[in-house]
Amino acid sequence: MIDWGDLRFVLAIARSGSALRAAQTLGVNQTTVTRRMADLEAQVGAELFERKQSGYHLTPLGRKIAAAAERIEEEVNALESTIGADQRLLAGSVRVTTPEMLANILITPWLRTFRKENPGILVELMAQDRRLDIARGEADVALRAAIRQAEPLQGAGIVARNLSRVGWSVYCSRAYAEENGKPGTLDALDGHAVVALDGSMDQLPGPRLLTRLTPHSRISARSNSLTNLVMTLKAGLGIAMLPCLAGDADPDLVRCLPPIPELEGDLLLVVREEIRSSPHVRAFTESLAAHIKGYRAQLAGDSP
Asked: I need a labelling partner for 152 at 20 to 30 A (CA). Which of 27, 49, 218, 235 fits?
């Protein structure tokens, strides 16, 4: 009989494409992940993943098992959310920090639905690009886009959950494309006017890469937030790197290139460890994770 615990490992590898990142998400070591997969494949008598240089890829049987595992996960999460609901009132506050762009697109439109289902939970949303220290209690929960990294996602006092891939690409306004042409390759970017990020924001991987690729370009404007960067792009001042979630969502912007592989990152849901099992915090994080599942294609840039 297949154990639900093994299916959690299948989902983690399928979502991340890597045994290492799956181990980081699950809070175990990589050896445990590979051993559990080998045991499960021996149990079913077939490979669930193709091991390639680019990562783990589901086999046809693996896709069927992963799809079934997702349905089981949803049922388990729903069951856990309802157990004891008539014995206790979900009440309390959850302080959530996230960049303004993620707050505006992913969280704020969903809050009304969450509040209708959980009227006793107050969500204190801190939308800012500065990263608050979750472990030190500056916030309870964070939704963050992070670069791919070899270090464990978990740290002292926090637990991180990988919700989705995050893609970046180059964008400009429709008016700018009509007047100056739309660059169709990375090599074609140099010479176009660039809208740059300022302050700590210019250290994001996307803006750093654009700077390297456009040594002969002039900077037409600077902004210290991604939200304002979008508005500056819409004014027709040049090209800029944006998360696909933000760029594709705006009808006035056009994507110049497919998502750039070296900029692919992860969307992480980070929770302070000491409160993650609190009923009201768990209700918030599980509901938000389920909501974001519907945005995975947009986050990765798979559906412009």
From this structure: 49
User: Contact, 256 vs 94, CB < 8 A?
Assistant: no
Classify 296 in phi/psi space as left (phi over 0), alpha (psi -120 to 50) or beta.
Answer: alpha
* pLDDT digits 0-9 by tens, 131-169: 888 888 889 999 998 876 544 455 668 889 999 999 999
Q: Is 167 exposed, middle or buried (0-12, 13-18, 19+ CB in 10 A)?
A: buried
How is domain 4-81 classified at the CATH fold level?
Arc Repressor Mutant, subunit A (1.10.10)
Tokens of 274: 């000491």
How many other C-beta atoms lie within 10 A of the C-beta of residue 61? 15
* Separation CA 10–CA 218 (nearest Å): 48
CATH assignment of 84-166+264-300?
Answer: 3.40.190.10
**CATH tag, 168-263:** 3.40.190.10
CA dist., res. 173 & res. 1, Å (int): 55
> Which amino acid belongs to residue 159?
V
* 122 φ/ψ angles, rounded to the nearest 5 degrees: -95, 125
- Give residue-wise pLDDT tens across range 160-199: 999 999 999 999 999 999 999 999 999 999 999 999 988 6
Element (H, E) at 52: strand 49-52
Tokens 């959310």 correspond to 81
User: Helix (H, G, I), strand (E, B), or coil: what is residue 302?
Assistant: coil
